[in-house]
Design goal:
The complex is a heterodimer of chains A (99) and B (130). By secondary structure, chain A is of the alpha/beta class. Chain A has 4 helices and 5 strands. Chain A has a single domain, classed as Hypothetical Protein Ychn, Chain: A (3-Layer(aba) Sandwich). Chain A has a 5-stranded parallel beta sheet with strand order 4-3-2-1-5. Chain B contains 5 helices and 5 strands. The chains are: A alpha/beta (99), B alpha/beta (130). Chains A and B meet through helix 4 of A and helix 1 and strand 5 of B.
Chain lengths: 99, 130
């Protein structure tokens, strides 16, 4: 399953909820303010790094760049464009948007 | 592959209608089919043709209308959500005794069954917003 998270982990708990429910082998795509979770050295980066051991985590590149975060993305988080977003939806049997 | 799209957030609110639009464009560019885009809750505000955004800003409503014309998209607005928010077409305006309608080209008003149908007919339903 593909999970999308569109809220910042610093003002909303959807990322935490998502990571709690995401099964091993599933994918999490951070979009909109959700991309803040991809930054290095933050209050949630340890949790995201831990999650990377069992799920794939992606961040939407245009949203990362719109927030000036392109040099702060942690290792292991892969960047995709909108076409990559479409491909992730195709590759997974269902999409869960955590809103 | 066939995609159903659900937009739950109004234009210029945060980013959901922008993300939905970019996703739809990217999917079409890759040769996928957009079975339907359903606008629900505040998302119905994506369909009012009376918006006048600043000239140097994106025109979200017009952008949807143009994409719909170009790719024969089915843009459906939830009727109950639309009525609450003053979004109507000619026949709804007449039926409710209103003096004008405001729906943008390419959109149509219908019921929630259209969302359910999109969920059944499409291979994936992707939800954007709020």
């Amino acid at each position: 399953m593909l999970h999308t998270v569109n809220k910042s982990p610093f003002d909303n708990s959807t990322l935490q909820t998502c990571l709690k429910f995401a099964r091993r082998g599933s994918a999490v795509l951070l979009i909109e303010d959700g991309v803040y979770a991809a930054a290095r050295d933050t209050a949630v980066s340890k949790q995201v790094q831990e999650a990377l051991k069992s799920v794939s985590i992606y961040a939407l590149k245009p949203d990362v760049e719109a927030r000036g975060m392109q040099n702060r993305v942690m290792d292991g988080v892969r960047l995709v464009d909108y076409g990559g977003f479409v491909d992730l939806v195709v590759e997974h049997n269902a999409v869960q948007s955590w809103l | 592959m066939k995609f159903g799209i659900l937009v739950n957030e109004g234009p210029y609110t945060h980013q959901a209608s922008d993300t939905a639009y970019q996703f739809v464009k990217a999917a079409l560019a890759k040769g996928h089919e957009i079975y339907r885009v359903f606008f629900y809750h505040d998302g119905v505000n994506n369909a009012t043709r009376l918006t006048v955004p600043p000239q140097d800003d994106r025109n979200i409503v017009k952008r949807w209308s143009e994409l719909a014309a170009q790719h024969k998209l089915d843009l459906v607005v939830c009727i109950a959500a639309a009525q609450r928010r003053g979004l109507m077409d000619k026949s709804e305006a007449k039926r409710n005794g209103k003096d004008a309608d405001n729906i943008a080209p390419g959109f149509r008003i219908s019921g929630l069954g259209q969302l359910i149908e999109a969920g059944i007919q499409a291979d994936r339903l992707v939800v954007f917003g709020a």
